[in-house]
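With this grant's support, we have settled on a layout for protein records. One resulting record is reproduced below.
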Amino acid sequence: MKREDLDVYLLIAALMILLFYKNYGNILKILMNLSIYLVMILAAASFIILIKMRRLLPRRGPLVVPARLSVYDKDANINLNKLKDIAEGMGLRIIFLISIGRSGLMGRSPGKVAYKVLLLGKDREMIRAGASAINSTSEGFKIELMERNLNPDLAQEIIEICDESEVASIGVGRNPERDEPLLELGERKGRVIGIPVGELTKHILVIGQTGSGKTTTVKRIIYEAWNLGIPSLVLDSHWEYRNLIFGMGGRIFCSRAGYPQICINPLISIPKGEKEIFLVAETLSSLLDLTPSQFYLLLKALRRLSDISSEKNPPNMYDLLMEIKGFSTSSQPEEESRASLVRKLEPLVSGDGEAIFKCDNILSTGFEEVPTLLELGDVESDLQKRLIAFFTLKRIKDYYIREEAKSRYPKLIVVLEEAEKLIPYYKDQIGMELISRLFAELRKFGVALVLVSQSLSEIPEGAVRNTGIKIIHKVESPSDLKFLRTFMREKNIVDKILTLAPGECIMNFPGGVESLQVRSVDELPLSRESVDEVIMMNSFYWISR
């Protein structure tokens, strides 16, 4: 409000008061009432001024929590640069109150020694999450938060004294002379039971009815693998892995506006030629249940798009739909096939589908470096989910094939929750060979699959037979039990499956059969609001398309 306007309003108010009191002739009373109104106006103005001044004052600094970095393994190697990156990725800052020399931490050999660190963040809940993420990155050390918070002024003085450039880049890894690491799942009668790391690339199937503990088992696999330096990529539709991935310092993507999103273009590789064209055509034909005439039109459209595009400027699903819509047909049956194919394709690119399948940034998510979660709960249809899952696996396979480094040990674990909704069903032998070949190539180049499902009989048989390790929780479905009897080594084990308690399972793997109780992962009880704030505001989570 301008000052001149305020003067006019005050004059009008004064005139109104004078008119109101004109019959009383009590000038003193009028003056007293005027003074009351003036005091009220000044009080309101002071309140507004105080609010504005408060906004101009510097905000309170971050919470500073002292912590202890305890090294309890004499063979532990700690990459402090990596720990710093993880903390920063979660919106925290970590200060190491130690001096780093060439001969080791403080010139001493690590082993049962504690060092002081400071963790700075928005609140203690987020700092706890950061400490948990750091602890899950390696073995042989642990960051323990102290109960008290540090005085901000004292903390600032310490930070100013510290030289943050004194951070070591010490290699992380196990001693090659040790035995093959074991991915520990649980125990039985005091004996630790797990999966040898070299066996993971044979792929894992985890099945069990609701409440049987299969998600607990998968979380243990993800957590233990990350302890060994192996990241996981999780495709989940029920928001069950959010706190785990976040607490491990991972990234989270979804399909909601305002959040980091991923997109996958199934047609990105068709400019390479006929082999890629046929794979896309066969996959879409299976998903959409196409007739032979519809398959022919689809193949024709894909070949046309391949001819007019390039690897630098590939077509997408919307281009495919427009190409088919633009076809001129020579007969009524052909026109009916074209119209039916359009109706089947349109749901894939409608709504969020257009954005999901328009571009391709899956290889920019950092899945090969940190645990990554693709939340598919907001994806509209199971068809879209299957398309995302299949071509995400294909893009990952292509990525590792380019490295031309075959590996017996896993470089990545891919978890498919509700696998029966994510793996396409193929109607013919050619299609089943495609999925078998994909699984085999992922295995060859160091990608381990974990298929999770409530119902064994709903997963394509080819996918089931391509999993070398099967972890079975309680199952009561007659069709599932019948299927289990076809591949279980010990037939009487199937009867025991009916009596398993929550968390108990039977693991069938090349080395034999084991019964065990899976240890649950101690997840931090983070609020969804806190996680969302970090995801939306921190550039660590965002990728360019």
Remarks:
- DSSP finds 19 helices and 17 strands in the chain.
